[in-house]
Amino acid sequence: DLHQRILAQGYKIGRAKNYIIHREGRLSLERLLKKKLYYGSAFLEYRRRYPKAFRKSIMRLSLLTNWYYFLLKPHYGMGVIFLKLLEGIALFCGMVLASRGMNPKHY
After folding, report:
1. Is 40:103 a contact under the CB 8 Å cutoff?
2. Which residues make Cβ contacts (< 8 Å) with residue 97, sequence separation at least 6?
3. 49-67: per-residue pLDDT in tens?
């Protein structure tokens, strides 16, 4: 919620014109899904604090605006769709665990 707190202080947040390469090291599906499970546990609190921002954060528009890449390489497109589906399930499970008072870090 750092982004929201900066905006609340009256500052503007710009966009970089250059590409930023974000390296996360060696990724594994298990690590990625555990991270999404953890993020899901904070989603309910984030939604309570920032309802407008929450609605915008559900889906990244870049996936929709760059749909033609999926047509160029359909096997990558199917992989991205499958990965996003798994991430969505992990986020939802994190929200359910948090709503029941369970800490997803233990899973």
Report:
1. no
2. 37, 40, 41, 103, 104, 107
3. 887 777 666 666 667 777 7
